[in-house]
């Protein structure tokens, strides 16, 4: 019964309701003008597919499988890339919080620190007027997780992955590091590796924050519209576009 309710909700609430409305317009147009109706039907189907977890998991999963997570970190510094933060939101020891992907990266890096004792660079600035400064928030939270302040090097000016790479390379050179362990979301690691190589570094890729389960199972809910799937599809397409741009425009 619970799955039937979930199925019904997916077509009553956004984004599924928009597919139903578009299909209603297709039926209405079909009687008077079939060519526009066929075009609208094709657009509706593409929109529907982009909303389904089966498509979003396939797209994001193909990015996540490009690099394997190594069994151990091998380098002289852990580099974490930011992925969003809020400002003015309450935290246990201050204000500002890391967003979901960035928080997962931070937690994974803190665990790596406990295993290796390697110093940590967190790269990420304040991207928007109402977002938090990622590196400053990350430094406070890493200290709260027990990492000594002297082992944390915040790089708080970068606004995108290209700047992450360039500014991190400069900070590493300043402190005598040369072998970064690059920690970022698995969907983001391929583009990050390209940008860091452009900056003259050869990192060890350490993907974390996986979005798609392995192996993927198929069931009814995988084919119903989901706001989360829309977000994941958009995220994956952004990464594909960014990866192409990074390779073509070094």
TrEMBL record:
CDD domains for the chain: YdcF-like
Spans traversing the lipid bilayer: 7-30, 36-60
Swiss-Prot/TrEMBL keywords: Membrane, Transmembrane, Transmembrane helix
Domain DUF218: 76-242
InterPro entries: Cell_Envelope_Assoc (IPR051599), DUF218 (IPR003848), Rossmann-like_a/b/a_fold (IPR014729)
GO BP: any one term: peptidoglycan metabolic process
Pfam families assigned: DUF218
GO CC aspect terms: plasma membrane
Keyword Membrane annotated: yes
PANTHER family given in the database record: ENVELOPE BIOGENESIS FACTOR ELYC (PTHR30336:SF4), INNER MEMBRANE PROTEIN, PROBABLE PERMEASE (PTHR30336)
Full protein name: Membrane protein
Organism expressing this protein natively: Paenibacillus borealis
The organism's taxonomic lineage, starting at the top: Bacteria, Bacillati, Bacillota, Bacilli, Bacillales
